[in-house]
């Protein structure tokens, strides 16, 4: 292979791979193409082209486009963004997951800048090496996904999950006026928007759904109010007269004169020689805080002349013009997201065949927050009555990825056998939960530590009997037992358990 340094030198235009690709840069509207960060990168064009360094957006399914190490965009305005949405909406994983870079014109603006994997300008060729490295890192993860047998399709949720897994970082919302949601998720939005940025609601629903299934972890960023009718975030909050409903109201300070106890609007006080004069006792007011104060404000309606201190508030949507009280609008939490360990597993193997997914279908698997509450309740019961004991059984399963690599299509049947072993360990009075695909927690009620250890041994023996005959390296189980008491904190206990039982590196698959 050509060393990266040589590729960089060639891509800078000193030795162009195509005679028509000139050493100098071409303007964005030129029929020729600027120098590429790497000869394996292809420009994507709107119109058909026979140029060896470019491919039409309508021919991304051809082998030349699939084999490119990255796609390149240029130009300003909406045009490059629309091309990006065409790339990200392609049905082939090797296309929609591919790194995309944008050649930004000095002073040029485009919404695409928030959504590409990187950018450069004519005078920033020193970043070519960084773009090559970034493309290599993304492509390695795409290759790993394809090599594990990840199938096409799976719906928009799986597409979003796979893209987030491949990009491998947190996705933080940014405020914007270009989207009715009032925010946008950089890099993710083009996955669901075919032609424009006017949408966004569907992506929010997808992210919330993935979080509900513990495939994503969400962190609170901001609280937002949105229109109850159309979900737009652009609302106008108006103060109204409670008597006639007019928004034409004047607001003035309320002034309280200590000496005579008169309280009235500021406009009721006369002004003489730069001082306020009380309309009740005709004395001049000296200094605020000494002989008067301003305890509040008063509103006067210009339509009906009524005075009031508490106006009604209504919110009107700029998009659909529906009006509602603020407390009747939709309140939602906007979060930043990252993929969980279960999400990574699901991105590789699909939305329905992970161990946790099977357990959730076949067993009584509680979400982690509910499980925490039950453990706390059980600890309080034990502490109060002091007549029983219960135990936590922590089980870590490692090596499931190796199992999938070794067994291929047969791995689904084996994982279902593991799920059956888990289900057989549960009694009707026990509870099961999970923090991710590998760490499981049983609450074994009315069971001491020795009984919990026996349950763990039964689980381990059942799984080994199923797997040892068919696998060179069966999945490994790490087991720990902890009595339930008031000082047990599940998060701390889980972290201590995981630190004592780190996951072993995956076995190389021979590539």
Number of strands: 23
Query: What CATH architecture of the largest domain would you give?
Result: 2-Layer Sandwich
Strand content: 15-25%
The name of the CATH superfamily of the largest domain reads Reverse transcriptase/Diguanylate cyclase domain
Question: Which fold name is given in CATH as the topology of the largest domain?
Answer: Alpha-Beta Plaits
Helix content: 25-40%
Q: How many helices?
A: 14
Structural class: alpha+beta
Q: Give the integer mean of the pLDDT values.
A: 81
Strand order of the largest sheet: 2-1-3-4-5
Number of domains: 3
End-to-end C-alpha gap: 16 Å
Shape: flat
Which spans of ≥5 residues are poorly predicted at pLDDT below 50?
Answer: 1-25, 194-199, 504-511
Output the CATH class name of the largest domain.
Alpha Beta
Mind telling me the C-alpha Rg?
A: 32 Å
Largest sheet: 5 strands, parallel
Characterise the protein shown here.
With 511 residues, the protein is of the alpha+beta class. It folds into 3 domains: 4-147, Rossmann fold (3-Layer(aba) Sandwich), CATH 3.40.50; 242-310, no CATH class; 352-500, Alpha-Beta Plaits (2-Layer Sandwich). Helices cover 32% and strands 23% of the residues. It has a 5-stranded parallel beta sheet with strand order 2-1-3-4-5, with helices on both faces. Helix 6 crosses helix 7 (201-212), helix 6 crosses helix 8 (341-349) and helix 12 (411-425) runs antiparallel to helix 13 (449-467).
What secondary-structure arrangement, pairings included, does this model have?
Blueprint: H1 4-14, E1 41-45, E2 54-56, H2 63-66, E3 70-74, H3 78-88, H4 93-96, E4 100-103, E5 118-120, H5 128-147, H6 155-167, E6 174-175, E7 183-184, H7 201-212, E8 216-226, E9 235-240, E10 249-257, E11 263-265, E12 270-272, E13 275-277, E14 292-301, E15 307-308, E16 312-317, E17 323-324, E18 330-339, H8 341-349, H9 355-362, E19 365-366, H10 368-385, E20 391-398, H11 400-407, H12 411-425, E21 431-434, E22 439-444, H13 449-467, E23 476-483, H14 490-500
Parallel strand pairs: 1-2, 1-3, 3-4, 4-5, 19-21
Antiparallel strand pairs: 6-7, 8-18, 9-16, 10-11, 10-14, 12-13, 14-15, 16-17, 20-22, 20-23, 21-22
């Amino acid at each position: 292979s050509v060393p990266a340094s040589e590729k960089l030198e060639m891509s800078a235009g000193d030795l162009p791979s195509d005679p028509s690709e000139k050493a100098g840069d071409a303007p964005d509207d030129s029929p020729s193409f600027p120098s590429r960060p790497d000869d394996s990168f292809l420009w994507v064009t709107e119109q058909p082209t026979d140029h060896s360094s470019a491919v039409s957006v309508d021919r991304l399914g051809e082998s030349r486009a699939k084999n490119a190490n990255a796609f390149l965009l240029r130009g300003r305005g909406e045009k490059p963004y629309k091309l990006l949405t065409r790339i990200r909406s392609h049905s082939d994983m090797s296309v929609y997951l591919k790194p995309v870079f944008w050649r930004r014109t000095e002073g040029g603006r485009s919404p695409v800048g928030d959504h590409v994997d990187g950018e450069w300008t004519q005078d920033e060729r020193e970043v070519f090496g960084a773009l090559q490295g970034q493309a290599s890192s993304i492509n390695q993860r795409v290759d790993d996904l394809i090599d594990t047998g990840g199938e096409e399709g799976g719906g928009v949720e799986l597409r979003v999950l796979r893209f987030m897994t491949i990009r491998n970082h947190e996705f933080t919302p940014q405020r914007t006026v270009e989207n009715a949601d009032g925010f946008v998720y950089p890099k993710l939005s083009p996955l669901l928007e075919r032609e424009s940025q006017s949408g966004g609601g569907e992506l929010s629903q997808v992210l919330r759904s993935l979080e509900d299934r513990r495939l994503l972890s969400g962190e609170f960023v901001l609280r937002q109010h949105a229109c109850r009718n159309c979900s737009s975030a652009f609302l106008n909050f108006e103060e109204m007269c409670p008597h006639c409903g007019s928004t034409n109201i004047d607001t003035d300070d309320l002034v309280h004169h200590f000496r005579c106890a008169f309280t009235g609007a500021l406009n009721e006080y006369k002004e003489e020689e730069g001082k306020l004069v009380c309309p009740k006792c005709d004395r001049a007011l000296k200094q605020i805080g000494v002989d008067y104060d301003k305890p509040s404000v008063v509103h006067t309606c210009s339509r009906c002349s009524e005075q009031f201190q508490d106006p009604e508030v209504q919110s009107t949507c700029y998009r659909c013009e529906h009006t509602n009280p603020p407390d009747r609008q939709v309140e939602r939490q906007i979060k930043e997201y990252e993929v969980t360990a279960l999400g990574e597993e699901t991105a590789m193997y699909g939305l329905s065949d992970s161990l946790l997914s099977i357990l959730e279908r076949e067993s009584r698997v509680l979400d982690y927050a509910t499980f925490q509450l039950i453990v706390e309740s059980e600890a309080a019961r034990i502490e109060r009555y002091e007549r029983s004991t219960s135990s936590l059984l922590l089980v870590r399963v490692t090596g499931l990825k190796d199992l999938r690599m070794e067994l291929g299509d047969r791995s689904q049947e084996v994982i279902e056998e593991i799920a059956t072993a888990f289900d057989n360990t549960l009694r009707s009075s026990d509870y099961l939960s999970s923090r991710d695909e590998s760490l499981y927690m049983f609450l074994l009620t009315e069971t001491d530590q020795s009984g919990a250890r026996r349950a763990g041994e039964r689980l381990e023996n059942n799984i080994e009997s199923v797997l040892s005959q068919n696998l060179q390296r069966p999945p490994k189980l790490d087991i720990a037992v902890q009595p339930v008491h008031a000082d047990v904190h599940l998060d701390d206990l889980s972290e201590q358990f995981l630190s004592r039982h780190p996951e072993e590196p995956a076995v190389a698959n021979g590539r």
